Amino acid sequence: MAAMSQVDSSIEDWLQRKQLDCAVWTALGPNDPERKASLSTEEQRMTFLKGLVATGKAQAAREYFEKTPAQIATPFRGRVREELGWN
């Protein structure tokens, strides 16, 4: 059996803390809203979402946020809920 990586170990620790049996891990970083090869900042992502709202193009993004399980509670999701009212 292959040695457990640091990421695998972190996921295992998280599963135990949350008392979950399994997780689906995609290992994807956040996308840059402009689709550049770099990671975007939280501020850039929030500006992007607010721009979608302002132009009436936020429906798919809002559905994504609102269909995400409640257990996925990240600081950014909290900010989106607070600033955009998406639940």
Describe this protein's structure.
The structure is a single chain. The chain has helices spanning 6-18, 42-54, 59-67, 75-84. It has one domain. The longest helix is centred in the N-terminal third of the chain and has 13 residues, at 6-18. The model has no long low-confidence stretch (mean pLDDT 84). It is an all-alpha fold. The protein contains 4 helices and no strands.
Feature tags:
mainly alpha, 87 residues, globular
Beta-strand content bin: under 5%
The level of helicity is: 40-55%
Which series of helices and strands comes N to C?
HHHH
State the major sheet.
none
Q: Report how far apart the termini are.
A: 42 Å
Number of helices: 4
Overall radius of gyration: 16 Å
Give unreliable regions as ranges. none
What structural class results from the helix and strand content?
A: mainly alpha
Globally, the shape reads globular
Mean pLDDT across the residues is 84
Quickly count the domains: 1
Quick one: how many beta strands?
0
Strand and helix layout:
Blueprint: H1 6-18, H2 42-54, H3 59-67, H4 75-84
In summary, what is this structure?
This protein has 87 residues and is mostly helical. It contains 4 helices and no strands.
